[in-house]
Specification:
The complex is a heterodimer of chains A (334) and B (382).
Chain A lengths: L1 E4 H15 L3 E5 L15 H5 L4 E3 L4 H13 L3 E5 L10 H8 L2 H4 L9 E6 L14 H5 L5 E3 L4 H13 L4 E6 L6 E4 L12 E4 L4 E5 L3 H14 L4 E5 L2 E3 L3 H11 L2 E8 L4 H13 L8 E5 L10 H4 L3 H9 L9 H5 L1
Parallel strand pairs in A: 2-3, 2-4, 4-5, 5-7, 6-7, 10-11, 10-13, 13-14
Antiparallel strand pairs in A: 1-8, 6-12, 9-11
Helix pairs in contact in A: 1-7, 3-4, 8-12, 9-10
Chain B lengths: L5 H9 L37 H26 L13 H9 L6 E3 L5 H6 L4 H4 L1 H4 L8 H4 L11 H14 L6 E6 L6 H12 L4 E7 L2 E2 L2 E2 L11 H4 L4 E6 L3 H16 L5 E6 L18 H8 L3 H11 L5 H21 L21 H21 L1
Parallel strand pairs in B: 1-2, 2-3, 3-7, 6-7
Antiparallel strand pairs in B: 4-5
The chains are: A alpha/beta (334), B alpha/beta (382).
Chain lengths: 334, 382
């Protein structure tokens, strides 16, 4: 076992996929010679040649549309959107073509494309560099939406994404790129569609994904000191979504808080809260609560800490889970 | 011994270097090999007229194409199709583009290319599946090397670049031809597609049918460019403009464009000046934005009549052949009419197929729910 960053694990996953399958091509802005602004594609052009890992013109719709065509010709494109918000020009290609090609053609044509997107905040980035855009993609049938929270998952989920017959939006938490863990490659973790319990607990379930997972784990550690034993579930693949693991956890604990960085309104957390409520109503001792980003445009770097889910905000929310069978004052007032 | 005069020598020393854009530039006038009456014009050195037997086949498919188009419009009036965007008047472009390609080349059609798809030999019922409304694409695009008809404008321009590059990357000499209209040249994806194709030297032909209107908006509101063909030049793409109602010129220019792409010289952009004789679709009222005199003036440039006149004058077409082609067209339309008569059966459970390779657990649940609803409906009906 060696200590390794998530960035290095992602880089290794790309290299191993290219080694195993000649059809895999990697392209985007600055991914060739430079190796990507986060160095996720570092060394791939040198190792596999500039026909398999290459720079494109600076045009995100072009990159994704080009990938559609390459997939139609039998290749397995892996593309990079340089930052979350810079992926928006590609949205029409993603929503109208990547997501629908299989359906429109009854499976005659498919788009096994991986769209890698460094996403979310917490790195002091200026505007348009820190969006959490997962809800847009998760709302689009035909796409799988994946976001790793651990180094081993980063490797394994990216390999799974490249092997997958369907298009995958692969959201890489920028804040975790340079977090390290002891990891043995090639790591193989749970497949798509499986959430994982990262911490066992009995009193309440924290559901999180991507950059919110370390926040949830830290909150659980802090709660332990206060005498509450929290379970943490890492969603991993938003689509396909694992209702079973999450519902089983909530039935056991009877309480649930969903945590994500994206603004809360109409977010993935709303979907999760609804699904938990539908499945676990009779086990719940309190409403399912959410800790999400504020419903504001992503703030300037010096203000982002107020926006992002924090350990304190998670603990405050856990405290509102009707532990003494008292009504939450917020809802009584309403 | 003669010596070069000093002034001439000086002038030649000062002569500007060759303009790198010049070889890309379209002709200042539309390429035309037949005049509007069908009389041949002088041969063009860059665009040799196709062999006469090819032109007879072009004529045959144009007649069938026009008959198909009229039948589809009629089917819309009878409520058999949800909507139909006609290509009547654009037969030279619709069929010419197909004749310029091999069967293993890729075609990227828009919603207006139903006629082109029939010219490609695709079953007209499968072509009309989208517009009848029983699925989005009725033919097998992988077998036919023909993408589903694209309704978002210009998005197919980038797909064509990708397919062409992917085919070349895998050692195949496939060409991709992307159809688009005048309005689509204003969309970003047109520019990104042409630029990608140029940068990667992908063998793509971008074929712009400029039929003068994007629904109601005239070309003058779409662009200030002297010709849409100039839009290729900025990207380093060889470009040309052609009289889109001159079938001989359309095929001659597209043959050249396809050969250019197949030879590895990169993309080629062709603007064909033509006219949509019908409204945008049956749901449109064209009298709100163009006058009947304008439509009538294009009637005089009918591409089918033009080619027929030319071929008759050359002795390549006689009454017997014309009658035989007309009979073929009637038979084709009659067969289509008959097969479109019955309402297609649709199965709601197919909604869950082909969303993903394997349905997600959520889709499995929803399928079970719909199956139960259908069973309950049937029980209620029984």
């Amino acid at each position: 076992m060696a200590s390794m960053t998530m960035a290095k694990a992602l880089n290794a996953a790309l290299a191993d996929a290219m080694l195993d399958d000649d059809r895999v091509v990697v392209f985007g802005e600055d991914v060739g010679q430079l190796g990507g602004v986060f160095r996720i594609t570092d060394g791939l052009a040198a190792r596999f040649g500039d026909k398999r890992c290459f720079d494109t013109p600076l045009a995100e719709a072009g990159i994704v549309g080009f990938a559609v065509g390459l997939a139609m010709s039998g290749l397995r494109p892996v593309v990079e959107m340089q930052f979350d918000a810079f992926g928006y020009p590609a949205f029409e290609q993603i929503a109208s073509h990547v997501a629908k090609l299989r359906n429109r053609t009854r499976g005659a044509l498919t788009a096994p494309i991986v769209i890698r997107i460094p996403y979310a905040g917490g790195i002091g980035g200026v505007e348009h560099h820190c969006d959490s855009s997962e809800a847009y993609y998760a709302h689009t049938p035909g796409l799988k939406v994946v976001t790793p929270a651990t180094v081993a998952d980063a490797y394994s989920l990216l390999r799974s994404a490249i092997d997958d017959p369907d298009p995958v939006v692969f959201l890489e938490p920028k804040k975790l790129y340079f977090a390290s863990a002891e990891t043995q490659l090639p790591a193989r973790t749970e497949p798509f569609g499986r959430a994982v319990v990262r911490r066992q607990g009995t009193d309440a379930t924290l559901v999180a994904y991507g950059p919110a997972v370390p926040v949830a784990l830290a909150a659980a550690e802090a709660a332990q000191a206060e005498g509450r034993d929290l379970e943490v579930v890492d969603v991993r693949t938003i689509v396909p979504f694992d209702d079973g693991t999450i519902a089983a956890s909530v039935r056991k604990t009877g309480r649930c808080v969903v945590i994500h960085e994206a603004q809360g309104f109409a977010g993935v957390g709303a979907e999760i809260a609804a699904r938990v409520q539908e499945r676990c109503f009779h086990s719940l001792h309190a409403p399912v609560l959410r800790v999400a980003g504020l419903d504001i445009p992503y703030p300037a770097p010096m203000l982002e800490h107020t926006h992002l889910p924090s350990v304190d905000r998670v603990l405050d929310t856990v405290a509102r889970l009707q532990w003494d069978d008292q009504l939450d004052e917020r809802w009584v007032a309403a | 011994m003669t010596t070069t005069p000093r002034a001439v020598r000086r002038k030649s020393r000062l002569a500007a270097p060759p303009d790198p854009a010049r070889p890309l530039l379209p002709a200042s006038e539309q390429i035309r090999l037949l005049d509007p009456a069908g009389t041949p014009l002088p041969a063009h050195p860059d665009y040799p007229a196709p062999p006469v037997e090819v032109l007879v086949e072009l004529y045959r498919r144009m007649v069938l194409g026009r008959r198909f188009d009229l039948q589809a419009t009629a089917l819309t009036k009878q409520g058999r199709l949800a909507v139909y965007p006609s290509a009547r008047g654009q037969e030279a472009c619709q069929v010419g583009a197909i004749l310029a390609l091999r069967d293993d080349d890729w075609v990227f059609p828009t919603y207006r290319e139903s006629m082109a798809l029939t010219a490609r030999g695709i079953d007209p019922v499968e072509v009309l599946t989208l517009l009848r409304g029983d699925w989005h694409c009725g033919y097998d695009p992988a077998v036919r090397r023909t993408a589903p008809q694209c309704t978002p404008l210009a998005t197919q321009c980038v797909h064509a670049a990708g397919v062409a590059h992917g085919e070349a990357y895998q050692g195949r000499d496939t060409v991709a031809l992307a159809f688009l209209g005048d309005g689509a040249t204003s969309e970003g994806d047109f520019h990104e597609g042409v630029n990608f194709a140029a940068v990667f030297k992908a063998p793509v032909v971008y074929f712009v049918q400029n039929n003068q209107y994007a629904i109601s908006v005239p070309l003058s509101r779409q662009t200030a460019a002297p010709s849409l063909a100039y839009k290729g030049v900025g990207y380093g793409v060889r470009s040309e403009q052609v009289d889109g109602n001159d079938p001989v010129a359309v095929l001659a220019v597209l043959n050249r464009a396809v050969a250019h792409a197949r030879a590895g010289h990169g993309p080629f952009l062709v603007e064909a000046h033509t006219y949509r004789m019908e409204p945008h679709t049956n749901a449109d009222d064209a009298t709100r934005y163009r006058d009947t005199d304008e439509v009538a003036s294009w009637q005089d440039r009918d591409p089918v009549v033009r080619l027929e006149t030319y071929l008759r004058d050359r002795g390549a077409l006689d009454d017997t052949t014309v009658a035989r082609v007309a009979a073929q067209a009637e038979e084709y339309a009659g067969d289509l009419r008959e097969r479109m008569h019955d309402k297609p059966t649709v199965d709601p459970l197919t909604l869950f197929e082909h969303v993903y390779a394997e349905p997600t657990p959520q889709l499995v649940e929803q399928r079970a729910q719909v199956r139960a609803e259908l069973a309950a409906d049937q029980e209620g009906a029984g």
